[in-house]
Amino acid sequence: MSFSFDAAKENYREKTFFENQTNKIILSVAELPSPNIGDLSIAYNITILYSTTGLRESIYTICFTKWDVAEVIRVSGTESDYDSLKNLAETAEERIG
After folding, report:
1. pTM (2 d.p.)
2. Which of 3, 32, 75, 93 has CB 3.0 to 4.6 Å from 43, enough for a Cys bridge?
3. Spatial distance between the Cα atoms of 36 and 96, rounded to a whole number of angstroms
4. Domain boundary assignment for the chain
5. Hey, what CATH topology would domain 5-96 get?
């Protein structure tokens, strides 16, 4: 198993993440420094715009593998929420073994 930022970015570019939700426009997908969790990990931030309200939202995502387990964990919020997400991902990794 592996994760690829290019594959994730392509997935969002093709809008499969927001299927049937036409009010969400993806503004950017940015790779973040690797959180160094598990055997392989990537992190990225998706910034979306709600076309009906004009509000922006940041969705932080960490993907990691450990042995034969793959995890994708997301949180919507600020950079401090991303720090909490990293802590949660580390805890998940520890529980895998």
Report:
1. 0.81
2. 32
3. 15
4. 5-96
5. Nuclear Transport Factor 2; Chain: A, (3.10.450)
**Alpha carbons 15 and 9: distance in angstroms, whole number:** 10
pLDDT at 62: 93
The amino acid at 75? V
The 3-state DSSP class for residue 19 equals coil
Tokens representing 17 are 């993440």
Q: How far apart are CA 66 and CA 47, in angstroms?
A: 28
| pLDDT tens digit sequence for 45-89 | 989 888 889 999 999 999 998 988 888 899 999 888 999 999 999
H/E stretch holding 42: strand 40-50
Half-sphere exposure of 69 (CA within 13 A, CB side): 12
